[in-house]
Design brief:
By secondary structure, the protein is of the alpha/beta class. Helix content is 48%, strand content 15%. The protein has helices at 17-28, 41-53, 68-82, 105-133, 145-148, 154-174, 192-195, 199-208, 217-227; strands at residues 8-11, 32-37, 58-62, 87-90, 136-141, 179-186, 239-242. Helix 1 crosses helix 9. The model has no long low-confidence stretch (mean pLDDT 96).
């Protein structure tokens, strides 16, 4: 029997990159998986097709993570379609990099809205369900830059640091309801977002990574799947770095 057999999951930002890898790994482990998309419908449907190849149910829902109403609607739609919900993986994120003296209010608001408020929206939407059933797994994807900060990313680093605080507070609030809340903090991972990074940024990151290579989305996904399984039932409130030693 696979580790997540019969479980039902939501992965935000599941149409691309790390999110797509997580959605597909959860399905391989036996879960039915729903993902949201805002613009990338074609990519989202490809992920759903990959989920269904594993024999599990997949669902793509058009929903903006910044919208409190969209989060509530999506969670309700998934519960109706799958007959329940056991796992939430918050992954949706963007970056709008600039040094703070050049950063616009819009760049700040957009990143904090997607990368932090979006996580709140979905955690809020599932909390009542998980408390009532006395079970649930929440995994929040943060970043090593939420632990250390990064030049040119005050908005991104602040949001990712906020996710860590959110994770720890939620672990305290939901622990007595049998809900595990953890975070994973990737370093630089080979994703679509990374491919747009200037070569100097990638070179600087590689110089920091003690294993000498960029991470792969699947390597983050395997840690997320572990945290969603019964093998991690006594782990909560933790941040696990998946960075090849980049943070050391």
């Amino acid at each position: 029997m696979t580790a997540l057999a019969g479980k039902k999951a939501i992965v935000t930002g599941g149409s691309l990159g790390i999110g797509a890898a997580i959605a597909q790994e959860l399905a391989r482990q036996g879960a039915d998986v729903a993902i949201n998309y805002r613009q990338h419908e074609t990519e989202a449907q490809r992920v759903v097709a990959a989920i269904e190849v594993t024999g599990r149910r997949g669902l793509a829902v058009k929903a903006d993570v910044v919208s409190f109403a969209d989060a509530d609607r999506m969670v309700g739609q998934v519960v109706e379609a799958f007959g329940g919900l056991d796992i939430l993986v918050n992954n949706a994120g963007i970056n709008r990099d600039a040094v703070i003296w050049k950063m616009t209010e819009g760049q700040w608001d957009e990143v904090l809205g997607t990368n932090l408020k979006g996580y709140f929206n979905y955690c809020r939407a599932v909390a009542g369900i998980f408390r009532e059933q006395q079970f649930g797994k929440i995994v929040n994807v943060t970043s090593i830059n939420g632990l250390r900060g990064k030049f040119g990313q005050t908005n991104y680093s602040a949001a990712k640091a906020g996710i860590i605080g959110l994770t720890k507070a939620l672990a305290r609030e939901l622990g007595r309801s049998g809900v595990n809340v953890n975070a994973v903090a990737p370093g630089l991972i080979e994703t679509e977002m990374m491919r747009d990074a200037p070569p100097k940024v990638v070179e600087a990151a590689l110089a920091e990574i003690v294993l000498g290579r960029l991470g792969k989305p699947e390597e983050v996904a395997s840690v997320v799947a572990f945290l969603c399984s019964d093998a991690a039932r006594h782990i909560t409130g933790h941040v696990i770095q998946v960075d090849g030693g980049q943070y050391i």
